[in-house]
Design goal:
globular; about 0% strand; mainly alpha; about 260 residues
């Protein structure tokens, strides 16, 4: 199978274990990387469970009990599973974008987002193992589909996708994860803490990739990045950007205050 077909297979695969296997294999597939990519599907492959419900119906995720910790980690697992699909969709949908003007630039774009997909697959794998060790597993709790809904709102444009997915939604993870880690610390949950600390460290680079490629696209389109970002977020993101911000992690990801503070 050539590379575009392999990306489509990984994105379309509904079984989490097989999706992880197919995703991890992608960096080793070199053939056909710059050929035309098949049309990205409207929906990714995903299992029948978890049941997808409105956000307000997702179980509360307090860390004062084993079940509460499991529900919390399940919500993170669901985010990571969706993040695998988002990174694969980024490649499949936008690798042949007109702004990626030559093979070297296209190769960098593909490599960055495949590396994100592989990271997200490993994150999901770690959390799923943790849940199984606790007597649970992915799919046991309901979840919501907000992350994929946001991706569908930006499926038409690479800049909109970069603004909303990595620069808003993943950046939000940089803000809230330290607060969750601190709650887990107070409740003596070292294994869950360790997993989230790994995720937090690696998500900084994912947000950086979003910022890097957004700035590149903005430059190619003759736009000022900060204003263009704000315009796209106002148009394609239904929520608001909430304080507090993890300014240190955002700065490390080169997502500077001029981008997001006017939207908070």
């Amino acid at each position: 199978m050539d590379f575009p077909g392999a990306v489509l297979s990984a994105l379309s695969c509904p079984d989490p274990v097989e999706k992880i296997h197919l995703t991890k294999a992608l960096p080793n597939i070199k053939s056909g990387r710059f050929s035309e990519y098949p049309l990205a599907p409207e929906w990714p492959g995903r299992p029948e469970k978890p049941e997808l419900v409105a956000p307000k119906l997702v179980p509360k995720r307090g860390v004062g009990s084993q079940r509460g910790v499991a529900a919390l980690m399940h919500s993170v697992a669901h985010i990571e599973f969706n993040a695998i699909n988002l990174a694969l969709d980024m490649v499949l949908r936008f690798a042949n974008s007109e702004v990626l003007e030559n093979s070297d630039i296209r190769a960098e774009f593909i490599d960055d987002w495949i590396s994100v997909a592989v990271d997200e697959a490993r994150h999901f794998e770690m959390i799923d193992l943790f849940l199984k060790e606790q007597g649970y597993g992915y799919g046991i709790f309901p979840a919501h589909d907000g992350l994929w809904d946001a991706s569908r709102q930006t499926s038409h444009d690479i800049a909109a996708r970069l603004a909303v997915a990595p620069m808003v939604l993943e950046a939000r993870g940089l803000d809230v994860t330290p607060l969750i880690i601190e709650k887990l610390r107070k409740n003596n949950e070292p294994k869950a803490m360790e997993i989230l600390e790994v995720i937090l460290e690696e998500e900084v680079q994912h947000v950086y990739f979003g910022t890097r490629w957004f700035n590149y696209v903005a430059e190619k389109r003759g736009k000022k990045p900060e204003k263009y970002f704000q315009q796209l977020v106002r148009s394609h993101y239904k929520g608001i950007l909430k304080k507090p911000f993890n300014k240190t992690a955002r700065f490390e990801a080169k997502l500077y205050e001029d981008f997001y503070l006017p939207l908070s």
